[in-house]
Specification:
Elements (H helix, E strand, L loop, with lengths): L1 H9 L5 E2 L11 H12 L12 H15 L8 E4 L2 H12 L5 E5 L5 H8 L3 E5 L11 H7 L4 E7 L11 H11 L6 E5 L24 E6 L12 E4 L2 H14 L5 H12 L3 H21 L15 E2 L10 E2 L2 E2 L3 H11 L2 E2 L1 E2 L9 E4 L4 H15 L4
Parallel strand pairs: 1-12, 3-4, 3-5, 5-6, 6-7
Antiparallel strand pairs: 2-8, 7-8, 9-14, 10-11, 13-14
Helix pairs in contact: 2-9, 3-9, 4-5, 4-8, 10-12
Length: 379
């Protein structure tokens, strides 16, 4: 899809990109200034593998202050983005043949990470009707003697689903009966949450020393290029992650770490401005697409994505364009509407596509207009 996107742009086509999973805002100025100052202050040498001590302490305090989670600095590992944090965890805990349960839809990289670490995935299906949430009964049914871990994101990429405290508690009650399972909670979209206070599954005492909480600076502070992720971990997983990261990459960029320290110690004023813009865009898309024929639209409560069900269009065609799956649907929109979206297949649900609203309201309006016009020609 990306190749077609580039080709069309090279031909001069005005492609509107609703596929990108990256904030369209600039990193707040006070964070940028901290990065520049770090160079002047001489932070140009190798940093500690797990991160500077004061940054790890700041992350520990952040977990306590914002989430009421108790991770001391020795349980924190700073990495080159949350993606590396997740890889560290899988490589630390998985043996050949171990199973990892993934509620679908899931972030596209989870299966590859599990496979790289020698594990295999077991998926739990969900749908737009359940707002892409799984039930405790589904979770219990998916657990086998080979289950080593459960990995999910809330707020979720790609669906925007946010689990409530009560929903997390009900899942926790299942995990309580299976003490060998490590729960990996990807909370990178924590602050892009339209429900209010973020709820972490790590808050429940039944899961003490069994939850790996992954987060980072990319989404909340529009710092994708700075590559700073971090994890609060059971001590043995933190120690293993440190060893693994020491052989793969060593520590994360030293100047970026100093900027991350300032972001975590600062207030969230700029973040809240971004979240307010995302919420307006969510409401705009909801309003524009609520009557689009054949589209079942979910109502995301976080992140900056919709994950609409589009399988109504399977079997329909326009000339030589025939829609048989979500990839065909996205390709059709790219060629006939010049709008780029992502197929749900890679996210574990081929009935859906992912629409990102990390772009301007003007572009959103035009993109939805084009999409609806192109869909009218499918018969």
């Amino acid at each position: 899809m990306a190749k077609i996107n580039r080709q069309l742009r090279a031909e001069g086509k005005d492609v509107i990109d609703l596929s990108i999973g990256e904030p369209d805002f600039e990193t707040p100025e006070f964070i940028c200034e901290a990065g520049k100052k770090a160079i002047d202050d001489g932070y140009t040498k190798y940093p500690p593998v797990s991160g500077f001590a004061d940054l790890r302490e700041a992350i520990s305090k952040k977990f306590l202050r914002e989430n009421n989670l108790h991770f001391n600095a020795s349980q924190i590992v700073v990495s080159n983005g949350a993606k590396q944090s997740l890889n560290n965890i899988f490589l630390s805990i998985l043996d050949e043949g171990d199973e990892v349960i993934l509620p679908a839809p899931y972030w596209v990289s989870y299966p590859a990470m599990v496979t790289l670490a020698g594990g295999s995935i077991v998926t739990i299906a969900s749908s737009v009707e359940s707002n892409f949430k799984i039930t405790p009964a589904q979770l219990e049914a998916a657990i086998t003697p080979k289950t080593k871990a459960f990995c999910f994101s809330s707020p979720c990429n790609p669906s925007g689903t946010v689990y409530s405290r009560d929903e997390l508690k009900s899942l926790t009650e299942i995990f309580a009966g299976h003490p060998r399972i490590v729960v990996i909670s990807d909370e990178i979209y924590e602050h892009i949450n339209f429900r209010g206070r973020h709820e972490s599954i790590a808050q429940f005492e039944e899961l003490n020393n069994r939850v790996a909480v992954v987060n980072g600076c990319s989404k909340a502070f529009a710092m994708t290029g700075w590559r700073i992720g971090y994890a609060g971990l059971p001590l043995e997983i933190a120690q293993a992650s440190d060893k693994i990261q020491g052989q793969f990459t060593s520590g994360a960029n030293s100047m970026a770490q100093r900027a991350a320290l300032v972001s975590l110690n600062g207030d969230l004023t700029e973040t809240f401005k971004m979240v307010a813009a995302y919420k307006r865009r969510r409401e705009l898309i909801t309003d524009l697409m609520k009557n689009t024929p054949g589209i079942k639209l979910n109502h995301p409560e976080g992140a900056f994505y919709f994950f609409p069900d589009i399988h109504f269009y399977f079997g329909k065609k326009n000339g030589d364009s025939v829609i048989t799956n979500s990839t065909d649907f996205c390709t059709y929109l790219l060629y006939h509407a010049y709008v780029s979206t992502l197929s749900g297949k890679a996210f574990g649900n081929d009935d859906c596509i992912r629409i990102s609203y990390a772009t301007s309201e003007e572009k959103i309006r035009e993109a939805i207009r084009r999409i609806e016009e192109a869909l009218q020609h499918l018969k």
